Amino acid sequence: MILELERECLEVYRRKVEEAANAKACLHQAVAAKEAEIATLMAALGQLNINSLMQPEKKSASLKEQLALITPLADDLRVKKDERLKQFADIKTQIDKITSEIAGYSNIVNAVSSLNLEDHDLSMRNLSEYQSHLRALQKEKSERIQKVVDCVNEVHSLCGVLGLDFDKTVNDVHPSLHETSLGQSTNISTSALECLDQAIFRLKTERKVRYQKLKDVSGLLFELWALMDTTREEKSKLSRITSILRLSETDVTEPGALSLEVIHQVSTEVERLNKLKAIRMKELVMKRRAELEDICNKNHIDPDPSTSADKSSAMIDSGLVDPCELLANIEAQINKAKDEALSRKDIMDRIEWWLYACEEENWLEDYNQDYRRYSGGRGAHINLKRAEQARIKVTKIPVVVNTLINKTLAWEDEKQKLFLYDGVRLVSILEDYKIVRQQKEETKKRARDQKKLQDMLLSEKGTVYGSKPSPRRSSSFKKANGYHANGNGSVTPSPRRNSIPCATPDLLTPRSNSMRQNGYFKEMRRLSTAPLNFVAMAKEDTVSFSSISGSEPESPPQC
């Protein structure tokens, strides 16, 4: 019994020893597991290993005490791990959200997107990197949002200046840029920013084109205002345009300042003024052409037929020529006519004197045929004085004519062209005049000789019959041809129109230069183009002419 009890006690003891060994092994395993867990957690959290610090306590403590000592530490580390995981999850969520918004904007974004959240790397260093990436993305997002806002504001300003629909313009870029719903964020992607930049570039280009177009059209408008002497009231209607053009292209911010309506308004006004200008330019062309013709008529120059009134009017109406160019052409012709008139002045003055002398010669012939010229009527002494002066002028006519011919030839040599007087060469007129005058003098001489012969025959007949004949009167004195009676019955000679083609011009008044010259040179042209006929000259030139004598009150121009 004792041996059996001993054996049973040994078995119980052996069993207890085994249980104790198993319990110790379990405790060792639990402690090791806890220590491993603590090591893993500390490694994941990036903390220092505290097992080395606990070695002295572990040597003096039992396994249960060691397990009781490390269990709270493991629990505490698990709590820290959970908190760290939550932090990483929040940061990762924000990073993913911002990354999706900016859609791979830069290398930083790509680096952040490639990071994966792993349990074994929950250190503060890794958390700091995540936080740094998050702050960088948040800063980038803020910059992009500000850039989008600036771009949208600039688009809004440009659309206002150009008079375009802002909503339509922005919606064409991206609908989220104008109105953002609750479930939709503002598009800050790179493509959206590029589309905004392109839209701004297009709007700026359009602004530049419209500003230049408005500037060009307004330049024409200002020229027309100055040309047409537009009143301030009419200019005030488009004063807005003036204020716009005072600014540079980039400084124009007034809504609708460069809209198509404004440009159309200015273009319409320019078109209206152009039509009015065409009418006035036509009137001005006609006025300047009339001035040219007046200058040419005064100086007996033929105006350029290419710009005659009819041709100018037809060319302006047909649009074949610019009225400004036509006006400039006429202005050039006016200047040319003035220069030629200045170069012809000396010769024209001598022509004036010559024509006036011819007029006086004509008057003197009429005066010499008046048998009552020595009567004591009113004004007789005036006619006598005029007759004396006329005789002096008549004696100088041949010299003046020769001088005119010489000066005209010298002028033609200098200018290398003919000196034309109302379309006829002046030298030819003067040569014809000399021929006609010479033939007229011969006719007068024959008439005087014939009268002397008649007087001699009458004297001989009177001697035979013992009677003295009364002075023979010409049939041309039966009436006072070309004279008017004074109050006392005397007759004062006045200019008359000769029916004889002679060298003196047809005149109305002594000083009517234009009519005197025109009448004379018409007669001279007729004489220069037809054979001379002097048969009829003897009909009225059968009376004697007084000898040329007297004082010299007036002299021709110096030779």
From TrEMBL:
GO terms for cellular component: microtubule; nucleus. It is found in: Cytoplasm, Cytoskeleton; Nucleus. Gene3D superfamilies: 1.20.58.1520. It holds the Pfam family MAP65_ASE1. Residues 487-497 have a biased composition (Polar residues). Its main location: cytoplasm. GO terms for biological process: microtubule cytoskeleton organization. The keyword Phosphoprotein applies. Keywords: Cytoplasm, Cytoskeleton, Microtubule, Nucleus, Phosphoprotein. Residues 458-514 are annotated as: Disordered. Residues 467-479 have a biased composition (Low complexity). The keyword Cytoplasm applies. One of its GO terms (molecular function) is microtubule binding. Belongs to the MAP65/ASE1 family. This is 65-kDa microtubule-associated protein 6 isoform X2. It comes from Nicotiana tabacum (Common tobacco). The gene is LOC107759979.
